[in-house]
Amino acid sequence: METMNDTLAPNVIDNSPNRELISVLKDQIGKSKESKFAIGYFFLSGFSLVREDFPDSYDNLPFLKIVMGNETTYLTKEELVAGYDLRELFKQRMIEDLQKKKLGEGQIEQLRTLKEFVGNNIIDVKLYEGSRLHAKLYLFLTDPDEKYTSPGLGVVGSSNFTSDGLTKNKELNVLLTAREEVIYLNQWFDNLWDEASEFREDLIKVIDYSGVLPESPYPQIGTLVDPQTLFKYLVYQWFEGRVLKLLKRDILMEFQIVGVMNAVNILNFYNGVILADSVGLGKSFMASAVIEEFLNGKHPDWLANNGKEPSVLLILPPSIISQWEELLLNSDYFFKGNKKELRSGYIRTYEVYEDYGEKLLGTIAFLSLGIFQNMKEGEVDRLAEKYDLFILDEAHRFRNKSTRRHKNARKLLKKSDNFPNKFMLLTATPLNNSIDDIFNLIRIFNDDRFTPFTVKGIPIADLMKQYRDLKKELRKRDDDKIRKDTKKVATEIKQKILDEIMVSRVRKYIMEQFKDIKVDGKPLVFKDPKPFSLEYSPFYTRPYGELIDLVTGKIDDILFEYTKLYGSRFVVFEGDDDENGKHYIEIADLFKLLLGKRLESGIYPFETTLRRIYEKEKMFYNIFKIQIDTIFSEDSLRVIIKDAMGKAKIKKELEEVSVEYNVEEQDEETWYDRLVKILLEYSEDLKEEGVEYSQLDEIKLGLNKILQNLESDLRIMDTILEKLDAIKERDNGEYKIYGKIPKEDSIIELPIYRYVSDPKLSALKQIIGDPSQKSDKLENVDSLNRKKIIIFTQYKDTAYYLYHNLQDWASRETGLHTWLKDGKTDLIKIGLVTGDIDTSTKMNYLKRFAPVANSGYAEIERHGELEILISTDALSEGVNLQDADAVVNYDLPWNPMVIVQRVGRVNRIGNETDVYVVNFMPASEIEVIVGILSKLKEKISDITLIVGKETKILSPDEEITVETFGEKIKDYSQLSITELEQYGISEDFEKFLPEGMPQEQVDEYKLSNIIQYELGMTDKDFEDVKDMEDEPYYTFIHSDTGKIISVYEFYRDRYKIMKRVMSTTPVSNEISMETPLVFLDLMKGSARSPEKIESAITGLKTLKNETENIVEDLKEQYQQEQRGFLYQLYNALLVEREKAGEFKDRFTIVMTALQTIPYYEYTREIKPKLTERNLIELNRENVIVKDFAGTVDTLFDFFRAQGLVDIESLRVRVKHPGWWYEV
């Protein structure tokens, strides 16, 4: 390249070295009496370069006249947009230009000077709005009135009045000094000036509205983009990059997809969610959809190590493990056929692969709740490390924080590096007893300071305590003010806590909010069958009545003495009068109740249960009777008892009881001590006066007392069993046997009999059999003959008894053969499903019973169809039996929700046919239970704790009395499914139920649906917005709404704690809250050039003020009650905060932790750590810090070990992704 000659053509200015235009301007402007610029654009950068060169005084004002106009290229694309307005474009460009520059103090001062110069008319600015203004002119008049020589100097060329245009850009300008040239340029400018319109006031407003000056109240406007780009950017930001969410639209219904989307949002922030939809609304399907998303890589942020495959562990009651396996791994819905089972002991584990079986997606494992609750700490820690997402079904079993199962669940909270695991808790009844039920579920996925709630400013522990205290006061005195305060706090808990972490909907609200849902092209229907209540007492016979009378008179005398050997002797029920209030009931007493319930189910389950107890007691009696004289030490006693317990299957029995009830915690090491204590207490009754006894002698005396009690129990049970034997059918003197109960771990083999008198079975046969033969005693119950029937019972023994007896009966009733006998195989079309039947057999029966719902015609072709299916509640959840016409509840669970669940298997969403529901209503059997309850009431005053609160719900609101118990059972046996659903919701929980789903959630679904299925957008469509800078983006669209719509996100530390879409109109200044569905306006309205920019900024200012109000509310909302030692320690450190110096960051984290942990946590650990190391001194109520650095370091290390250092600041900040003006 040839080097330019600096001496050539000195009047050519091109910004090359020594030819910068700025040098000319600086030289000339100070000499001039008047300056005139015609340019495409100017602003602060150009003015700042020449400000210091302005003359000290001015002969005439304005000293500098500037005309701006449309350049050749800059506005071409804007001109193509409808509504093009040059003045608005200049204002918009100037404001955007100012806001993008990070102005230092000197530049801000220059801007003030510019505003002052314009305001004082030293500088005047006009806008040429005619044709394009291509020319650039800088005219300096040193003597405008000069008559002979040149009056000044002119520069004509390409440079704009900007820093780059004057110094850097490759420009070409020429200096003109000839008199004629300068005079001509002056006339040319004056003509342009006359044609141009005033812009001086606009420029002053631009400086004010830019918000750059510290005293300015106006917000940033950001960067102008087209409406489609803004739409994609806002959608991407709102959904945090997870835009295409509707992955199971072919399987899940709209309300379920909304639930899944909401659950994922909750999981992302709180690390846990409670799925509490009413029974039958598909909680297991929703959880499975989340699992599938996770394994398909849709939530990489849930993994501590992005290279690791996702692992999911489902912790389930053993009875429903096979259902979950079927749903996730064998059904057509999720991972069918793409699995490989691994050997992993008591955890059933599967590797899951993509459709073609090549790529490993992750691991799904299943663990029994009974095993989980008995795991040691190290075992639980290994689960926390291995798995990333935990599913806890029937999560209400975890609502008591004093149980081992709850403690173990909390240990799953984080991995060893404090990375949080995710939790989904499924339960239709999250609150039965008190608000602490839900609080304790929330604890499972929260640390001790409830970090997600803390950063949102929600004092969860304080609110829960307030509610408990108010409820306690309300029980003492029914006061209007207390009632109002209670309602107010309940509303706060609902809005601030439960709406945040719970997905909870009932049929009523789904029908209201999703009334347009279509199922297979037809409207969504929730049929509401009204059940028949079948009283079978008219079929009682005298022998049956005598049996009931005998049981009623004798059952309370049975001591169930062998249960004393459990070690864990009590079942614990928590009352709602006090968080820590516990009520203990002996397992022996509970067994009476369980026997009463078996009797209500039928004669046979009562007999089998009694016989199992009898055999256990007989085994203990025989062992102790023989070996008592061989006991010479406590060690030999321990060996004998352990041997007896093993033979009697005590451990398994206790596990079964503990799954159903909250058995008192008892360590393996101390159960024997408990037993010894009982034996020593017993020995007091047998001691002779004046005789000295060693402890071993006393223990043997106590064992003699147990032998006496066992003998008494056996005599009583013998009497009852003899009565049972008397009413069995015989053939040649032998009992007729129709089958056997699978022995499994039972102590004895149990044949299945038929009784001469079984009124319940007789009534069942009446409604199934020939309608013409149906007894008049059942005229109020429709016949179920030739309908497809599912019969539910709570107990396996009952199910086997019904199956074998109905099989035999149907084979003999020739009138039923055309319905119940298979013409090809001669097999009876009755099936049986219980929890102990393997999955493949169960699925075979399901497909044959409900072939339409389960694609079962191939199985029918091979094995024949089933018309009656007998099942325990192993089938009451997670399966579709929609082909059925009738549901028979052979026994009534005390929890109405179980009935809703059972009927929900048949009465599915969208079912258009009527479903018959028959509830068997006991009479005398209930009186047996009432008698048991009467005795129990002497030991525990609030009988609702047993029959209504802990694991069962009978009547959640009204206090259950022994006298009204039977009536309550009768009442709910007659309710429709919708009524039952409401009946099963406690008054307390009803306060917290949402009135429906938040509109924002529904609209998020609608937006996602439109994006994917109407606009047809894919991931590629969002590629161009993924890496856009964090700043506001904005646009203008044609619309007559006049709305300014803006999106805001609120953060505390790194946590996004809130997001809002708000709108206002400059006319009203009223603020409205919108949902993200309004983003679609950007796709509907046509783009337009910036318009009414000042109105837009005024509206943004109104919205900004509202965000400031929200920030203040968020600050005020978080008022963690702090007191005692931690409060004093915080204040002592605060006084010396100046010492923080180099470790200021640590100090800030420590102070945040002290502010946010509940005052009752950690004092016991922190105080000795600091005092024993002589870091602090305690002086009455005050804390004196002796070693500031040591105290901060010790606290930081302690909080880090507890996983409490992830909040560095409680300050709230606002992010403004974007806005638009509909004008």
UniProtKB/TrEMBL annotation:
Residues 773-951 form the Helicase C-terminal domain. It comes from the Archaea. Residues 1097-1124 form a coiled coil. PROSITE patterns: HELICASE_ATP_BIND_1 (PS51192), HELICASE_CTER (PS51194). One of its GO terms (molecular function) is ATP binding. SMART domains: DEXDc, HELICc. Gene3D superfamilies: Endonuclease Chain A (3.30.870.10), P-loop containing nucleotide triphosphate hydrolases (3.40.50.300), Tandem AAA-ATPase domain (3.40.50.10810). Residues 264-448 form the Helicase ATP-binding domain. InterPro entries: Helicase_ATP-bd (IPR014001), Helicase_C-like (IPR001650), P-loop_NTPase (IPR027417), PLD-like_dom (IPR025202), SNF2-like_sf (IPR038718), SNF2/RAD54-like_C (IPR049730), SNF2_N (IPR000330). Its EC number is 3.6.4.-. It is an enzyme of class 3 (hydrolase). Keywords: Coiled coil, Hydrolase. This is RNA polymerase-associated protein RapA.
